[in-house]
Description:
Blueprint: H1 2-24, E1 29-38, H2 42-50, H3 55-58, E2 69-74, E3 81-86, E4 93-102, E5 106-115, E6 119-130, E7 133-143, H4 146-152, H5 157-178, H6 186-198
Amino acid sequence: MRKKLLVTLLVIVVLVAGFAVVVALQPSEYHVARHVTISAPPAAVFPHVNDLHKWDVWSPWAKLDPNADSAFEGSDAGEGAIFRWAGNEEIGKGSMTIVASRPDELIGIRLDFIEPFEDTSNVQFTFEPEGDQTVVTWSMDGQNNFVEKAMCMFMDMDKMIGGKFEEGLASLKAVVEAAPEKAPDASSEATSSESNAEQ
């Protein structure tokens, strides 16, 4: 009986050690990226991402818990703007801080999770003009600790996060393309009228 118990324990130790080795060999970094082409110039797309107050309209995570507690701090938009949230188990608790903002070109965000686990990722949006359109790329990079490496063995991080990025970019595209075109300001109209009158 004692011998069987020792053999069983040895088998368990070997299995645990083997699993630990396999987990340790998993990638220590992750990168997820998706892009969409929007029929609008970068200047029309950029504000919808640069102002965190506007994320509620197109972010896929906002839809997962409409009753989540949220707060805005720092700048109204751009570098220094902060958004904090605390919601259900699907969105957890954390914050987003815009750490870089180059008008119509790039937005860098530090994403800090507190719950269900602590983690920090770097998120980036780039806006590339393509004719009269804009190619928006949403990417996220970070480090995998041991627990996250183990989780990645049972779930596809790229598919899971990438799917949400695709959903969010599709919503962003719909919001931007549905926005009315900016009407010419009064001064431009007056100048145009004067020019026509002179002719």
